[in-house]
């Protein structure tokens, strides 16, 4: 049996920082409201001329360096993004060119905030079936470009960034299991209406009914945790680290309670960068690997929920 093992991680946050105090000058909000309702203290934003691929490239180079391999060793480049630089080529193809390699498969995957768990699931299947031996999986976003900076109910929540992991075929897990789901019946709760079709374009801004999304996310993430443990005959106490999608501290705390896992075993970075959509899990993961919290041999549970709705989990023996 072939599994995927995580060889290395990398991440990058753009230099420009917008604090909650800065937001008080832009919209009718307070730093206290944002902090108390979301746990977010600041977010990093791309500057003019800075692209999603720029963020993806830096995170990817860091992950390749940590993995100790060259880009030319890759068989697959998979970028989870909701904010591609262009409609086409894919950000993955742009990234491949930046990394100076040719020939390996490269494509984007769009599952909004669940994009990284979806991409890990797909890359894992490529490796398990022998279609690839080494894969670069990236979550990269410039969500700030989808925000209406007059809408206080959304603009305070999101930020930009990128994270990446390198996977390699191995005789032992690695990725133990992945679980991904979607329910397309909830478009009106979380969407960017604009698109490419019949010359009709809706609003180019992110729209969200936050309260309803919140409730749905908490319930659904609780279910995905149960599904993942049951599928592997594991119990809550087998999980060493929860690495959740970083959307809102209250959603993260609710999932931790469901797992009976103390908050010091939960990787929380939402305060530093807000909701970076598909970049948030690999950003949090990389930080906890680099600061020495996550150690080889530990069991990690990643989980995410996003527009679509999409949701999923990745169980890893690191
Ligand atoms: N600053 C100050 N007040 C704000 C505000 C802001 N930035 N945004 C909303 N408010 C106000 C509302 O207008 C409302 O006022 P009202 O009571 O006078 O009508 C009040 O705060 C409460 O709004 P509500 O939406 O009920 O707050 P909440 O406790 O649900 O928190 C969110 C709002 C958005 C933080 C929360 O619903 C949330 O995190 N939802 C999930 C979002 C998410 O994670 N989405 C991505 C999933 S991938």
TrEMBL record:
Region entry ACP-binding, spans: 246-250
Root EC class: transferase
Matches recorded under InterPro entries: ACP_syn_III_C, ACP_syn_III_N, FabH, Thiolase-like
SUPFAM superfamilies, alphabetized: Thiolase-like
Domain Beta-ketoacyl-[acyl-carrier-protein] synthase III N-terminal: 107-184
Biological process annotations from GO: fatty acid biosynthetic process
A GO MF label: 3-oxoacyl-[acyl-carrier-protein] synthase activity
Beta-ketoacyl-[acyl-carrier-protein] synthase III C-terminal domain residues: 229-318
Biological or metabolic pathway of the protein: Lipid metabolism; fatty acid biosynthesis
Reactions performed catalytically: malonyl-[ACP] + acetyl-CoA + H(+) = 3-oxobutanoyl-[ACP] + CO2 + CoA
Signal peptide from the UniProt entry: none
UniProt-annotated location(s): Cytoplasm
GO cellular component: cytoplasm
PANTHER family: 3-OXOACYL-[ACYL-CARRIER-PROTEIN] SYNTHASE, BETA-KETOACYL-[ACYL-CARRIER-PROTEIN] SYNTHASE III, CHLOROPLASTIC
Family: Belongs to the thiolase-like superfamily. FabH family.
Designated name of the protein: Beta-ketoacyl-[acyl-carrier-protein] synthase III
């Amino acid at each position: 049996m072939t599994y995927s093992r995580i060889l290395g991680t990398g991440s990058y946050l753009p230099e420009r920082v917008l604090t909650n105090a800065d937001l008080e000058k832009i919209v009718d909000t307070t730093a206290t409201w944002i902090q108390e309702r979301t746990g977010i203290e600041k977010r990093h934003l791309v500057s003019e001329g800075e692209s999603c691929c720029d963020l993806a490239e830096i995170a990817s180079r860091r992950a390749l360096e940590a993995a100790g391999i060259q880009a030319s060793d890759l068989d697959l480049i998979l970028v989870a993004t909701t904010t591609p630089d262009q409609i086409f080529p894919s950000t993955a193809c742009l990234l491949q060119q930046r990394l100076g390699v040719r020939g390996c498969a490269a494509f984007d995957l769009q599952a909004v905030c669940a994009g990284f768990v979806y991409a890990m699931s797909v890359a894992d299947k490529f490796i398990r079936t022998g279609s690839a031996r080494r894969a670069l999986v990236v979550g990269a976003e410039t969500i700030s470009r989808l925000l209406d900076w007059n809408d206080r109910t959304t603009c305070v929540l999101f930020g930009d960034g990128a994270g990446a992991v390198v996977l390699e075929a191995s005789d032992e897990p690695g990725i133990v299991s992945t679980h991904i789901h979607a329910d397309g019946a909830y478009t009106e709760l979380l969407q960017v209406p604009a698109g490419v079709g019949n010359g009709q374009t809706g609003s180019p801004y992110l729209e969200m009914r936050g309260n309803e999304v919140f409730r749905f996310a908490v319930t659904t993430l609780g279910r995905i945790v149960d599904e993942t443990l049951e599928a592997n005959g594991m119990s809550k106490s087998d999980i060493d680290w929860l690495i959740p999608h970083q959307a809102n501290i209250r959603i993260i705390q609710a999932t931790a309670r469901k797992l009976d896992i103390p908050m010091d075993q939960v990787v929380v970075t939402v305060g530093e960068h807000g909701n970076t959509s598909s970049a948030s899990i690999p950003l949090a993961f990389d930080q906890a690997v680099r600061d020495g919290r996550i150690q080889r041999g530990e069991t990690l549970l990643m989980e995410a929920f996003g527009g679509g709705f999409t949701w999923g989990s990745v169980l890893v023996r690191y």
